[in-house]
Amino acid sequence: MLRLMAFAGLSGLFLLAVWVHFDPVPAIDKSIMLMFRRAGDPGQPAGPLWLAVHFRDMTTLGSNWFLIVITGLASLVLHKKGQTRHAVFLITTVLSGMVVSFALKYGFHRPRPELVPHITKVYTSSFPSGHAMMSCLTYLSLAYTGASVSGNPSLTRWFYVIAMLIILLVGMSRVFLGVHWPTDILAGWCAAVLWLSLALMTVAPGRRTG
Length: 210
Known about the structure:
A hairpin with a 2-residue loop joins strand 1 (37-38) and strand 2. This protein is mainly α. The protein has one domain (2-202): Vanadium-containing Chloroperoxidase, domain 1. Strands 1-2 form a two-stranded antiparallel sheet. It starts with a helix and ends in an 8-residue tail after the last helix. The protein is 70% helix and 3% strand.
């Protein structure tokens, strides 16, 4: 299963990279981004003002500094509870993922969207989305760790449901704010699935490849 996940993540990232290389701004990217803007006035976000405010707050849940803080706190709690191996897995996976995220951005160096004005400040390149990759990697790692430690099937479902909801909202927020194309988001998720699969096969407690 993990090998299949790693292959799917790698294949998805590769195909998206090839796609945006030969078609730098696919029509579907433009169409989806404009769905989040007012018809006839792409400078204004769709919906009421509070929606833009909430999306700007939501995107913080995928920022590197926030993810470092919650990873550090979760790892500290795990260590105090005698789950040091899970703490090491969590820290190793998230911090190494950040390095990979920056390396991918530097390697692909896709420009940020200029179709609509940005609602938040950005300083790095666009592909893949660091927020999408790191929120996916971190929250799924937290869900896996919580499920492994608790051993409670009911809690496990809630861990993954909440993680997936946050991941989806963070990804949407980046497109809503005009700072990422949808293909950037998909690429970030693919990269996260690839890296998490490799981490689960190599550094996770009780790791296995099946």
